[in-house]
Amino acid sequence: MNEGSRFVVLDTNVVLDLLHFDDTLTRPLRTALEAGELRGAASEATFAEWTRVLAYPVFGLAPARQAELTARYRAWCDFFAPPPVPGVACCRDRDDQKFLEIAAGLAIPLVSRDRAILQLRRRRNPLPRIFSPLESCAWLAERP
User: Fold this and answer.
1) Of 29, 41, 83, 143, which alpha carbon lies 20 to 30 A from 131's?
2) Starting at the edge strand that comes first in sequence, how are the strands of the sheet with 6-10 ordered?
3) Can you tell me the distance from the alpha carbon of 101 to that of 106, in angstroms, rounded to the nearest whole number?
């Protein structure tokens, strides 16, 4: 991992909020990523989901725009293949498990707005630490 940078796993919906929708709630995250104060931790599987979702017809993104958003997200990320970690929270939605596993394997927070993932926070000692986008902005503000 890069010295001086904090890492976080961003689920696909959060990345959409950052790059496609320009959600005001996630702007502190975007600012930190653009400044290099925060780095996204991705795996081949999480990044493949990002590129697949960008092509969904509901977003109406031309291939050139998809490539632009993919390049911007890639610039924010370092790629990892973390080791399996016992005790990782299990999500009802198996497609979301890859985000939990990379965050737990690297011992870094996961930022998600997915209801199934956020519900895992009710578990005693959930692994990994899970934030909503708003909570992650507060976490950024209170860290040195």
Assistant:
1) 83
2) 77-79, 38-42, 6-10, 110-111, 130-131
3) 8
Tokens 């993932």 found at: 117
In a domain, 11, yes or no: yes
Six token digits for residue 26: 């996630």
The verdict on whether omega for the bond into residue 109 sits within 30 degrees of 0, i.e. cis, is no
Q: Indicate the length of the chain as a whole number.
A: 144
What is the residue range of 63's domain? 6-142
> Does residue 1 fall inside a structural domain?
no
Q: How far apart are the first and last CA of the chain?
A: 18
Q: pTM here?
A: 0.90
Overall number of domains in the chain = 1
CATH code: domain of residue 32: 3.40.50.1010
Strands 110-111 and 130-131: parallel
